[in-house]
């Protein structure tokens, strides 16, 4: 009986974290269906944005294929789900996608390496999105 009470007490302590985990994971997708939904959502984007987005999604999911830490997996899937929710519908308004500003708190938390990558991305995308008449003048 005492062993049962201890097990019950231990389960009550951890039940709150299990409830939180279930609530958080209820809105998440499994990795493969989320991956597919991301690639499908990119179909409505202009070609350059789609190719850049598809390549990035594929590379990130490949890099995280062997991750076993559940907290890291939850964070990874959560961030991709947030990205998916922010993408425009593939039927309406996808051609008018303009992105959004980076939150200052996220910017402050970035490492020097991440800031360097962001800077490179900025210049790469500026080159991609130059108007056609500017490209021919250069």
Automatic annotation (TrEMBL):
Annotated localization: Mitochondrion matrix
Keywords: Chaperone, Mitochondrion, Transit peptide
CDD domains attached to this UniProt entry: Complex1_LYR_SDHAF3_LYRM10
GO biological process, one term: mitochondrial respiratory chain complex II assembly
A cellular-component GO term for this protein: mitochondrial matrix
Record's subunit section: Interacts with the iron-sulfur protein subunit within the SDH catalytic dimer.
Family: Belongs to the complex I LYR family. SDHAF3 subfamily.
Function description: Plays an essential role in the assembly of succinate dehydrogenase (SDH), an enzyme complex (also referred to as respiratory complex II) that is a component of both the tricarboxylic acid (TCA) cycle and the mitochondrial electron transport chain, and which couples the oxidation of succinate to fumarate with the reduction of ubiquinone (coenzyme Q) to ubiquinol. Promotes maturation of the iron-sulfur protein subunit of the SDH catalytic dimer, protecting it from the deleterious effects of oxidants. May act together with SDHAF1.
Protein name stated in the entry: Succinate dehydrogenase assembly factor 3
Organism: Amanita muscaria (strain Koide BX008)
The organism's taxonomic lineage, starting at the top: Eukaryota, Fungi, Dikarya, Basidiomycota, Agaricomycotina
């Amino acid at each position: 009986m005492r062993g049962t009470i201890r097990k019950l007490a231990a389960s009550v302590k951890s039940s709150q974290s299990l409830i939180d985990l279930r609530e958080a994971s209820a809105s998440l997708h499994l990795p493969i269906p989320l991956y597919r939904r991301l690639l499908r959502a990119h179909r409505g984007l202009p070609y350059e944005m789609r190719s850049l987005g598809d390549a990035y999604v594929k590379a990130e999911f490949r890099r995280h294929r062997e991750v076993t830490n559940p907290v890291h997996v939850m964070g990874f899937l959560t961030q991709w789900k947030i990205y998916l929710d922010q993408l425009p519908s593939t039927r309406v308004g996808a051609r008018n996608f303009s992105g959004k500003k980076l939150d200052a708190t996220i910017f402050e938390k970035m490492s020097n390496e991440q800031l360097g990558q962001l800077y490179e991305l900025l210049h790469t995308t500026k080159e991609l999105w130059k108007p056609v008449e500017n490209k021919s003048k250069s």
